């Protein structure tokens, strides 16, 4: 894979750098020579003292993405703002997501920065399936999907430049809030059971987070040549019959001496409990994404970059399982 040339004069703000995709983008930008700045919740806006993670090569500022002042302060001197932040907990998601993107867009307009947003498939309803293109109609079935559509609409209407990089369901070694980590396997324990949330024969799109982050970096490097608002889709790992990801997990686990069982995801239990648990209600709303084939067309991305960054499936699965503590070695290393 070709190296991204260092940009030692570039400064970027990553909102959500303590999360899965935001953290991966922040680390890759740092390694590519960017000066990366990140906000950390829990401190006063505009406080510069880096109390946590002082040696990770990232400049951490205290502040909250819900504070316009904190975001504007952090964005000073930045050429790029990566908006990969979500409020903690589903209960406050609908209330705070749009104010946070508004703060980012206002700061970007003030400092002349490009906003980069990790997009999701939640924007689409079944009328856009089975192959999602950048110009496919966005008529989501869920509240969360409607909010994602509005986020992108506001980006397009803003004076700041914007790039949306859309991918399938995320998985990766540091991605805990995902279908992979919360639905297929149990983090922190060797793989004993792998759950299958989809219907066999129904394809599904997955994306390895380091590949998504790499794609974002390469598009950021070309930002001046892109349209003022540009959207790109990643094909990622296309599970054509809905079984290949589960089979890969089992295959990798067997290479590490494990013999996991395959079981169906307990949708009936989730449905019964969902009226009382917000997270499970969200899962039920998103079930339609598992009932019909859903694939992303990366033609526009390949035309721009020449190819899509892509890690082989088994390598991506093994790294993910190791990162989630699902192969057993991690616990032995800690014990030693």
From TrEMBL:
GO CC annotations on file: cytoplasm
Pfam families membership: RmlD_sub_bind
InterPro entries per the UniProt record, alphabetical: NAD(P)-bd_dom_sf, NAD(P)-dependent_oxidoreduct, RmlD-like-bd
All copies of domain RmlD-like substrate binding, residue ranges: 12-257
One term of GO molecular function: aldehyde dehydrogenase (NAD+) activity
SUPFAM superfamilies (UniProt xref): NAD(P)-binding Rossmann-fold domains
Name this polypeptide is given: Nucleoside-diphosphate-sugar epimerase
């Amino acid at each position: 894979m070709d190296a991204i040339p260092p940009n030692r004069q570039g400064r970027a703000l990553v909102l959500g750098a303590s999360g899965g995709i935001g953290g991966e983008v922040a680390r890759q930008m740092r390694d590519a020579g960017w000066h990366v700045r990140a906000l950390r919740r829990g401190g006063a806006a505009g406080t510069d003292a880096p109390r946590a993670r002082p040696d990770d090569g990232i400049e951490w500022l205290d502040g909250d993405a819900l504070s316009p002042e904190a975001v504007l302060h952090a964005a000073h001197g930045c050429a790029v703002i990566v908006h990969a932040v979500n409020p903690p907990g589903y209960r406050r998601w609908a209330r705070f997501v749009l104010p946070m993107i508004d703060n980012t867009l206002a700061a970007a307009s003030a400092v002349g920065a490009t906003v980069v947003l990790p997009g999701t498939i939640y924007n689409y309803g079944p009328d856009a399936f089975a192959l999602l293109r950048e110009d496919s109609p966005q008529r989501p079935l869920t509240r969360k999907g409607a909010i994602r559509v509005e986020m992108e609409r506001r980006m397009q209407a803003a004076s700041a430049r914007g790039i949306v990089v859309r991918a399938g369901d995320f998985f990766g070694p540091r991605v805990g809030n995902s279908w992979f980590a919360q639905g297929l396997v149990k983090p922190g324990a060797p793989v004993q059971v792998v759950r299958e949330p989809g219907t066999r024969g129904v394809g599904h799109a997955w994306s390895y987070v380091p590949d998504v982050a790499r794609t974002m970096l390469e598009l950021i490097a070309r930002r001046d040549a892109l349209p003022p608002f540009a959207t790109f889709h990643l094909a990622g790992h296309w599970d054509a019959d809905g079984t290949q990801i589960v089979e890969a997990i089992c295959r990798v686990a067997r290479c590490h001496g494990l013999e996991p069982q395959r079981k169906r995801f307990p949708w009936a239990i989730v449905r019964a409990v969902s009226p009382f648990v917000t997270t499970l209600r969200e899962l039920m709303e998103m079930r339609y994404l598992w009932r019909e084939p859903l694939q992303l067309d990366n033609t526009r991305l390949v035309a721009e970059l020449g190819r899509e960054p892509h890690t082989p499936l088994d390598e991506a699965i093994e790294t993910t399982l190791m990162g989630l503590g699902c192969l057993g070695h991690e616990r032995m290393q800690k014990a030693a």
